Amino acid sequence: CKREISGDHSDGVTPVPIPNTVVKPVCADGTALATGRESRSLPGISFLLPADAPVSPCSARDGEASVGALYTGAVPIDEPDVIPMLAYENGPAALDWLAAAFGFRERRRMTDDSGRLTHGEMEAGDGLIMLATPSPHYQGPAHHREHCAAAQAWSAVAYIVDGVLVHVGDVAAHHARARDHGARILSEPETDQFGTRYRVEDVEGHRWMFVQR
Length: 213
Prior knowledge:
Blueprint: E1 15-17, E2 21-23, E3 34-35, E4 39-42, E5 45-48, E6 54-55, H1 68-72, E7 74-76, E8 85-87, H2 91-102, E9 105-111, E10 117-124, E11 127-132, H3 141-144, H4 149-154, E12 164-168, H5 171-180, E13 184-192, E14 195-201, E15 207-212
Parallel strand pairs: 1-5, 8-11, 12-15
Antiparallel strand pairs: 2-7, 3-6, 4-5, 9-10, 10-11, 13-14, 14-15
């Protein structure tokens, strides 16, 4: 997901809080950061940061007050060690659908002036996924296989192809919820020596396996 922040500090936008954040006060080239203003923004987005949060002078040498190094150097302390990063054609719609169909909890949504999702985060239990629309030319798996014979062939199986496994408390209830919201069920709930699970495609064709704890 893109986390680039430009030097265009827009006014009149709604600040987006960044909780539990540890800021590393160095630039990529090792230059120490200065401290500065309470909030930083990019076109269409503002970020609320502590008043003593460091501000990157890295690009100021080129006449641009960029805070790119600030945000890329900020590591939220509550992030898991492994985070799936998924691309969607319509990021905002995907955030809404994943919340409704899978019960994920949205914790961050960043869009540019055109409405394109530049960065989104959703929680699933104690797990986390990130999503964005990396390019207007991107096609989700379901869209891509409409005109790609190879993608159609490898999608013919019900197995998880480049997907994500998520643990849930009640597979039967989760399966019913996903089905009711139009998810494409790849395999009905099944139980064996490894547990109870089902496989499903989301609104753009990404594949998920939900396994009961």
